[in-house]
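Sequence in, structure out.
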Amino acid sequence: MKAMVITSFGEPDVFEERDWNQPTPGRGEVLVKVHATSVNPADYGVRQGLFGSGIKLPAILGYDVSGVVEELGEGVEDVAVGDEVYYAIGLLSGSGANAEYHVTPASIITNKPSSLSHAEAASIPVAGGTAWAAMVTKADVRLGETVLIHGGAGGVGSFAVQIAKAAGAYVYATCGGYNAELVRSIGADRAIDYQNEDFVGILEQETNRVGVDICLDTTMGKVLAPSLKVTKANGRAVTITGVEGSLDAAVYKNITVHFVHLDNVRPKLEALRTIAERGQLVPVIGRTFPLSQIPEAHKQLEQGGKGVYGKIAIEVVPSKP
């Protein structure tokens, strides 16, 4: 099979296209023909060597999968050959989805949303699962609440906006002004241009200094601390990256601060499939590349900025015209 492999850590040019032995499913496993995957910040973090010896080289990266079951290992009973499935791969596996085939435990896969293409479905597992963990598992977003989401046009942020909206919340989302229309189109009630507008001042004015029930930081951790100023007393704050600055305001206002690391993904994907099939969740795909162009996909995601939004999808099996 064809695979994009890294044999050392470094810049995007460390990827090599290679012929690789096709894996065989063992007991409790299935062989999946990978139709699509996507690129997450975790991918380039691993490629850069940020996880050190946890990743054994040579390695195949790629942590999102949408594909078709081709072979069953011994003891697999609740999956059939031909099933369209999607799932997330563990970060330290070293045997990821940047390849034509992948073997995985049957216990972690679930049916792909029937309403979505493979590229769309492959954009969901890591980013969508993280957004669900943040908004639902940790923040417990509820009907009628007000939510502030930083990075509303990003991979996790674009899913978080839609999840909060589907839950019945009023959504504020920060983004570059060039992405404001996009963020509104996926459900944000108010898009705030972080480059030219002061979100603290806007929230103080528009909430009459009461603040929001929930704030979520999907960026680099710099905005969670100032967001506490405009989070209600007894509110909830969530970060998927970390925190820069003081959390003293959380103490004074009795705000619960949650840190999110994605785990137990399958139940989240089952819930996300439900709202996707209802039309309440539409993956935002900014760019799509073939498997051989993964280095360029990594480069674009790392650079970010205008023109990079939502998810970058990788089509392993080209979609039909």
